Amino acid sequence: MLKVSIINKYVSAVKNKVHCSFNNLFERSPKSDYVLLSKIEKQPLSKLDYDSWAIAVGSVSFSSVRVGKKTDPSFIRDITTFYDMHNRPIQKCFWGTNTNYKQRIYEYNDAITSTLEKTNTKNIIINSCPIHQHKYPFGTNLKLLSLCGRWNKESEQMLCVTQNNSGKKLSILKLINKGKDNKSVLVTEYPWIKKNSENKGILKFISFNLKQNNHSLSVDNLKKSDNIEEIRMDQYFPYRFLNLNEKKQELPYLFLRRYGLGNMCITVDANSHKVSNDAYAHFSSNDRAIRWSTIQPKKKSIVNIAAHEAEHAYQHKQIGRLTKGSDNYENDCWHKFGPIKDELERREAIKYLKASKIYPLKSDPNYIRKHDSNYLEIKSTLAGIKAEKEYSIGQKQLKDLFPYFPNDINMF
Ligand SMILES: [Zn+2]
Fold first, then answer.
1. pLDDT for the residue 87
2. What burial letters (b/e) apply to 215-248, b meaning 16+ CB within 10 Å?
3. Which pLDDT value is given to residue 351?
4. Which of these, 111, 107, 3, lies nearest to 57 by C-alpha position?
5. Domain spans, the chain
């Protein structure tokens, strides 16, 4: 019978070179202590013992290795890898002495796999592989486990690996969710290695922890390779490493805070069906909500839209301070911030109020023209453009530092 089992990174490396060199980046270990005890080459799933506790759904073949330690004869690490019909590893199962049962599930986002044209190089194949890792407490009844056991999600990783045609790694982005409000980020770019050359180039990397607290993001423990002179640590920096939905969720708060609206109970919905088809997002003063459409923006950047909607929240704040408000949100702003004292600010707020009175209804035959020329929209559009400009400076720096990342992952 085959025992399905442990992995450890040295073993996983056998099947997955990407993870190997990646893990070794910061954790170079005495590799000589590990020995390969046995190995089962890839074979059809039917050859696997039926009693095995973890068979991946959708797998057609498997392989297995057992690793020991020279210095510790009682040490065993088994790893069984399951492959799908495309020969891709979809699950690794780990077992061993004095360790927890573990499984690691690989999900492939086929949409991201694509080819890119780059100068100097030919087609570059982009691979992105989010990895979900689950862990199970040590000592659990394995039979029960398969029937009613629950895998506790320990961590979740997203790996985006860029390779060229010959399989040489160009860059890797690794995001590990260490918990709800804590992420570890590692971005690397591998140098081209020239044959017969002394100069092998230098690995380029940045790494840091990304912490989230009440919609406020901060960076800590930043490390970088010496070949990166300086990283632009602007206010947008932590947001650049969020995925699309997280960006939609968190960026509006950055702009709301600029207007003192961080604690006004404005909710943000990253995917809402309440947004009309012709819009990417909207701000509702009545509902105190910024809502994003489920349709992903193509023409505008996320940061532009987030700033645009937050600007509307500011406009209604000012209308509230001018008039005591016509809904709860505006009225709360009146109570919290009081009347506007500055004369210029007051005149501006009057313009907001007038524009809100003539804000066109969707049913208006001239809706688009009236909408686009409405003062509220003009000001929000400007706020969006300004934010996008600010954002693009640091974005360009990161893209220049790590040029091989596919655009579709919405990173930076
Ligand atoms: Zn608008």
1. 87
2. bebeeeeeebeeeeeebeeeebbbbbbbebebbb
3. 98
4. 107
5. 248-398
State how far the Cα of 267 lies from the Cα of 30, in Å rounded to an integer: 50
Distance 357 CA to ligand 1 centre (A): 15
pLDDT in tens, 337-354: 999 999 999 999 999 999
**pLDDT on residue 127:** 67
Contacts of residue 94, defined as CB under 8 A and 6 or more positions apart, other chains included, come to 5, 6, 7, 8, 77, 78, 79, 101, 102, 103, 104
- Give residues whose Cβ lies within 5 Å of ion ligand 1: 377, 380
- Nearest-angstrom CA–CA distance, 336 and 353: 19
* Residue 9: count of CB within 10 angstroms of its CB: 14
CA of 283 to the centre of ligand 1 (A): 8
142: CA distance to ligand 1 center in Å? 56
Positions of the chain with pLDDT under 50: 1-30, 119, 147-148, 195-196
The pTM of this model reads 0.78
Ligand 1 centroid distance, CA of 312 (Å): 7
Q: What is the pLDDT of residues 363-396, one digit of tens each?
A: 999 999 999 999 999 999 999 999 999 999 999 9
Q: How far is the CA of 53 from the centre of ligand 1 (A)?
A: 54
Ligand 1 centroid–CA 22 distance in Å is 44
* Model pLDDT, residue 374: 98
Residue 197 C-alpha to ligand 1 middle, in angstroms?
A: 57
